[in-house]
Design goal:
Number of helices: 11
Mean pLDDT: 90
Structural class: alpha+beta
Oligomer: single chain
Shape: globular
Strand content: 25-35%
Number of strands: 17
Order of helices and strands: EEEHHEEEEEHHHHEEEHEEHHEHEHEE
Length: 404
């Protein structure tokens, strides 16, 4: 999988950008606030037309274009997958009609000139992005970890993405019914058909997540051991919401994090989820909210058995997240047969020299990688001689000749 050409129009601080991407590593250097992170964001946005940095797509449109009638932003990429060229295009167009002073936004997705839905992008373009705020995946709320895992799986398994979308629809309908009963109590048995769908889809998502996380762990652990000089052992422990709880005075499954949920059958997961819904039925009716299911699942990063979310240092968490992202790339390659493009935003800035070399050695495994840095001095001369080095200033790129 290779990005051949990227065209940006009115995206973030880029009025216009045209850039060719050769195979191998491309290093983009330049002062802060010049658009290096936005460049990687645009490439990553093509995976599922969502940004990890923007609260909404309006933020992606250049501020000057926002004030123009019919303002828009556009990303166009020429890519190759298994040797076959494809053209991916996303347009964000502001509707000139105003509703209570707020501009409406239309998103148009085209693949080889044909309109597609976001769900149809799965697997067409894969990328792994590491950026400094990814430490929130380790340190932040469960939603950050679920998003990381879901986005990884959906790139390799379109069926998982469809199940996730359908689960969200069922969950919304069930929550609406629960809120209705909180105001006007009715027959709780009307929840049964929604419960059936929730359990079926929920078991599929839980099993998919647990299996993928176990595979990512097997890839991340040796990477992490290398980066820490063998001083830490990394584990990723999945924790399904409400499963393995008390039933008839007995524990159906152990509650500690040693449970290997990837080895638990789909039938057992579905049964546990049904019982969890039964246990929480009264509270759900009182609160008007579905309290168990994949939408509340979590997983933990453990270093030598210690949960890094409350106890990890910034250095530990950064190393852990780099290990997880590199493992994500290897997992995608194994599942799809194609290496994703690797996007590393200021990744070496807080690493010591030994870890920088180890990370760059891993980067060399990827057919294509794009890295950003404020200072090219962080990179060894051998890397700079072989990389395509570009300088970005004020939205303009220029190539820097290779060093001696």
């Amino acid at each position: 999988m290779q990005l051949v050409h990227l065209s940006l129009t009115n995206f973030r601080n880029f009025i216009r950008l045209e850039m060719e991407f050769p195979a191998g590593s491309t290093l983009v250097v330049g002062p802060n606030a010049q658009g290096k992170t936005s460049l990687l964001e645009a490439i990553d946005y093509l995976v599922a037309t969502e940004s990890s940095r923007a609260a909404n797509d309006r933020e992606l449109i250049n501020f000057l274009a926002l004030n123009e009638p019919g303002g828009f932003a556009r990303i166009v990429a020429e890519v190759r997958r298994a040797g076959h060229p494809q053209r991916l295009e996303v347009r964000l167009v502001l509707d000139p009609a105003r509703a209570e002073g707020e501009l409406k936004l239309q998103k148009e997705i085209l693949v080889n000139g044909v309109r597609r839905r976001t769900a149809e992008l799965a697997g067409l373009w894969n990328a792994v992005l590491f950026q400094p705020n990814d430490l929130q995946i380790v340190e932040g709320p469960p939603a950050e970890r679920r998003r990381f895992l879901d986005r990884t799986i959906a790139q390799a398994d379109p069926a998982y993405g469809r199940a996730q979308t359908e689960y969200g629809r069922v969950l919304s309908q069930r929550n609406a019914l629960l809120r209705q009963w909180r105001e006007r109590p009715g027959d709780p048995r009307q929840l049964d058909p929604w419960d059936t769908q929730l359990v079926e889809l929920g078991a599929q998502l839980t099993r998919g997540r647990a299996a993928a996380l176990a595979e990512v762990e097997r890839l991340a652990a040796p990477i992490h051991a290398t980066l820490t000089g063998g001083k830490e052992q990394l584990r990723l422990a999945y924790q399904p919401s409400g499963l393995g709880g008390e039933r008839d005075g007995q524990l159906a499954l152990p509650l500690d994090r040693s449970v290997d949920w990837s080895a638990v059958s789909a039938g057992t997961v579905a049964e546990e989820m049904r019982h969890a819904l039964e246990r929480t039925r009264r509270e759900e009716l009182e609160r008007g909210l579905t309290l168990v299911g994949p939408h509340r699942d979590d997983f933990h990063f453990l270093a030598d058995g210690v949960d890094l979310r409350p106890y990890g240092s910034r250095g530990q968490n950064r190393t852990t997240m780099i290990s997880a992202k590199l493992a994500q790339g290897e997992w995608l390659q194994r599942r799809t047969g194609e290496w994703p493009i690797l996007l590393l935003d200021e990744t070496l800035a807080e690493l010591d020299e030994t870890r920088r070399k180890q990370v760059l050695a891993r980067v060399g495994s990827y057919p294509q990688a794009v890295l950003t840095a404020a200072d090219a001095g962080l990179f060894p001369p051998a890397f700079l001689r072989t990389a395509n080095v570009m300088e970005l200033r004020a939205g303009t790129l220029r190539r820097i000749p290779a060093g001696p």
